[in-house]
Amino acid sequence: MQKVADTVAPVPVTTKIRLGRTRDTINAIDVAQAVESAGGAGITIHGRTAADMYRGQSDWEEIAKVKSKLRSLPLIGNGDIKTVADALHRIQHYPVDGIMIGRGALAKPWLFRQIAQVLRGEPADAEPSGEQVVEMIHRHFAVLQRQFSESIALVLIRKTVCHYAVGQSGARKFRNEVCTAKDAESFFGVIQAFFG
Question: How many CB atoms lie within 10 A of CB 170?
Fold first, then answer.
């Protein structure tokens, strides 16, 4: 890592790891200290092991153990942040310098704005209405179409919009219809019927 940090200086080099390979081989402290010694600018730790994959709950107690073993390397915690309340709880109850949001942001990309609002002491925006989600998908699709053909843009946007339906009634049928839409017109017909 030192060679990479030296090569790209002044660009900071950060690392993201999991707690370890398995629950029996948690080595996040050792890895974090090695990253710090090698000139890393920060480390993000996801609170699961490689063997856990995405099963179970992210272990923020294990993430927290790392902070006291570092001299000055910023520690970013990651895992199971799906709401503003989740974010605030992690920030207020664990000794991290920041948080990273992954899958929670796929389903709710507006989550970043809501968290920032609350951290500034403002009320968080309400969840977007179905019509606002439809408008957001239209804007996203337009950006993709500026770079790709309609057929490629459809392929790229499908996975994203499927995340928006997580936990909603009819999500499985929606995902199937979105993924089999042959063109933009039929795709947006499905989008409007579900969210509109």
Answer: 11
pLDDT digits (tens, 9 = 90+) for 55-104: 999 999 999 999 999 999 999 999 999 999 999 999 999 999 999 999 89
Angstrom CA distances, 90 to 62, 67, 70, 97, 161, stand at 13, 14, 19, 10, 27
CATH of 130-195, one of 3.40.50.12780, 1.20.58.480, 1.10.1200.80, 1.10.490.110: 1.10.1200.80
CATH architecture of structural domain 2-119: Alpha-Beta Barrel (3.20)
Q: What is the pLDDT of residues 121-150, one digit of tens each?
A: 999 999 999 999 999 999 999 999 999 999
Residues shown for the chain: 196
Q: Give residue limits of the domains in the chain.
A: 2-119, 130-195
Residue 83's identity, in one-letter code, is T
Q: pTM to 2 decimals?
A: 0.85
